[in-house]
1,4-alpha-glucan branching enzyme (Cryptosporidium muris), 1049 residues
Amino acid sequence: MALRMTTKVAESSKESSQSKNSTNCMASSTSTNVSCVPTAANSPISYSSSLESVGEELKDIYEVLNEVPYDGKISDHDLYLLDKAEHPQPFGVLGYQKFGEDLTHEYFVVRAWIRNAKSVYIRAIGHSYSTIDTNNIPVKMVRRYLNGKSLWLFEKAFRILKNRMSVVRNHYCGYEDDVGLLNKQQGLLQQSINITSSNEKRRDLIDNNESQFFKCRVETDEENSYGEAYEKSVENISHKIDECSISSLYNKKYTIKPENSTGFGMNKSTELMNLNSSINLGVSKVDISDCKPNSSDLKLNTSHSCISEVKNTCKVDLNSDTKLVNKFEYLPSSSSRPRSTVNVSDLSCSTDKACNRYIHDNINSSECVRKLYYEYIVEYEGDSKNKFVLRDAYSFGLLLTEGEISLFQSGSCWHVDNILGSHIMEFNGVLGTRFTVWAPHAKHVSVVGDWNGWDGRANPMRSRYESGIWELFIPHLGVGEKYGYQIHSITDSVFVKIDPYAQEFEVPPKYASIISSCDDSYKDNQDKFKWEDDKWMSRRLQLGLNEEMRRQPMSIYEVHLPSWMRKENGDYLGYREIAERLVKHVGNLNFTHVEFLPLAQHPFEGSWGYQVTGQYSPYSRLGNPDDFKYLVNELHKANIGVFIDFVPAHFCKDSWGLVYYDGTPTYEYGDPREGEHKGWGTAVFNFRRNEVRSFLLGAAYHWLRRYHIDGLRIDAVSSMLYRNYLRPNGEWIPNEFGGDANLEAVSLLQELNWVIHKEFPGVFTMAEESTAWKGVTQKGSDGLGFDAKWDLGWMNDTLSYLYTPPDRKHTKHNKLTFRGLYMAHENWVLPLSHDEVVNGKGSLLDKCGFTGAPYMDRIRTMKALFGYQIGMPGRPLLFQGAEIAQGREWKESRSVDWHEGEEDIRKKVCIYLSDLLNTYKTYPSLHAGDDESWNFQWVDCENSQDCIIAFLRKYKEWSNDVVVICNFNSRRYYNYPIGVPHGNEWIVLINSDDWKYGGSMFGPGNECKIKASHGGRIGWPYSLWLDIPEFSCILMKPWVENEYNKKCE
């Protein structure tokens, strides 16, 4: 399929044409802030070659046949199937095909399938090792008809002498720069070195597993900027290698980077180093295969520069008297760069340029196949003034290696986001977009989009039958194009689906996938998003490697970004607009982390993001992926961590989404007793299917790797663990042992946590799990491996107690103390989350008192609640709006009522919370010992009549002790004894009734010192005799003068 461009080029001069287009392209890039990658809308499609043309004596000469012989013609049946978008093997009939041979010649036919083409000419690419006839004048192709109807198919036949050159097989050929020329230009070449033998020696070393000469620094991904590294041998590397240094027998230093999966190709950035020798050696870059899509014919996009991309034009004005032949001469080549003309690895070729005559059609093989490199010159219907130079989408070989497909099918492909989906890349010297999609039971799949009128006939895909993957490389197609996949199911229904791996989408309610401009895996370093959070990421790495992350303060501000703050007219603020406001607000409150409700693409905002369609794309309503990276980057620069909600349990059932993706249950279980949550109206992922496991696991790693996310909160874990979750008897299927546990979901969660903690040290995982499932935070085969579990029971019990009228609270005192019975079983997050302030439940302020309770009593109770939450073991989490004691319950369609925060009393609640969180961060006993039961001790837990509880938080030294006293009664207490383990003076760290926080100043104020006396409470050697305000919380610790002065400083 060819693309029709809109960029016009004056015919008068090539130089003026190039300059004109460069200017236009640069202007476009400036206005959109997107690299000028070629698209059907904003740039030419042709690319120049810096290499000289090959001498005629070396070329294969393809002789044009006047007619396509009968045995070379495509059949009417094939034409019919192509026209119906139902051909099972489009690559078997389109493009370059051999159809016969005799004693002297081989016979080929080229078939072009170009939507809305009026005429098509073919010519050999000028710098390739083939030519059509001796002068390579473009030859007109013959249009085919079916039952009198003109079709999009054009064909032309050729023959070539057999003895022109023998086919060379099983030798290395790849993209290489002219290293000799580079050395001369740099003035570095002092002596000629046989690079070929050097390459072969290194390859032999790897083949023989002599890895002692290849010690590498390995990173999990090119964007893994926190610098985790391990010393490994080359043969043990199973995933992405970013940069390695090698010391060889020659004491030279080389650079390894992934470039292809079959050989050793030279790279532009080849480094010439002079180490312990007077000889400079130009060394090629080495590839080690992983699940990133690399091949001998595939090279990552090396330049998005407008200047380099538009040196040639794709379109020529034909309104002049110049002969057609001359017009074709002015048409540029469509290829950016051919195969290398130097330093080939196989000396059996008759010349050092012989490799360019062959191509690896199968990237899983080293076999080289003789092939014509050609391009089309197309005139379209309705446009007689211009012609377009195009490459044939059906002239390219296989796109994914067998290794990549096997990794995907294994269920554990950590970089599946680089294999499936749409990616701009260079293939056989042409920049374009590679599409790959998994639809195992589809009969036919086509890529459809704006460039082809969403016509499924235009771009049928190749099936990799055993895997269920469909693939197609479309030359010249670039960023910003909307697309989808037209799928023809086994029941003969035809429909369009989104790309499950798309990294950008249209803004809802529209849902088309978009070729992303922010796909950093396929950009040069200078074009990638510029992260500035190295300090944060390095610290996170060290804490993770030292297993100290759980000792760090972790106070979490939960945010629904679309409703956190909006413009005055109700419009959304984008990621970049929110960044400065959110960073300042969270920093002032002294939260250490933010947690975003799901930001993966979702069609319905009323789901709050929990019904996902695009697991690999940030929510498009707020901006593109780079915009979201900017937000994370700004938070990290302010020393604020970022967690996100991740939803692997279920997905929405919109017809254009994942449900029945290929017409059959694909991502979901087939049996509705397993595959549907009727109460939620969602489908359940099929956790036993390996391809779905790769999809889900890869999505989690994608957020950590691409967006530097510091932690994942896994949603609805209970629904994953239990096969009978929210299902009545008879509507669920037991596991193979007759139990209700979903064993495949258990193994998925175990693998998720194991990989995250291995590959992303310092990343924190949390489970929203509300049952008594054992071992949620236990490591090893007996546990799920999470770092913490949400204590939903504590939240429900506490809020239930606070809502109880004062005269009945003593009957529910166990709601406050019950947690002591299970607290030691897991590691915890203590949430006051979005779930409790929505859908008619009222605001958090409403819950801080019975119906009709006075406003100020509820304000005081809310402050006491915050102190109680931060004092108890577990990481505190607070949902947006609670910091200003918002009166209305949360609604996803409107902003937080920030105007309420300007009221004096609410402003003082915010100040109190800030001071409280600063206290939490400052004193290690309040956070460092959360996960050990011996760091918590009840002081007073049985005084139900007085509605008072008190407990001690400890960590290592006695001077770290903090006593927390909470009074949830409307009565004040005078000279109330609180048992403590130490004598001397204790200092008040914070009193919620202090004047500073809008209190009545009853009891000891902040920084007051109280001397402990002997006796007073049974079981304690000393007591503090305190005046305790109503609805209050007081935190105190032993007075240590030097330590306190240091803390204050």
About this structure: The mean pLDDT is 79.
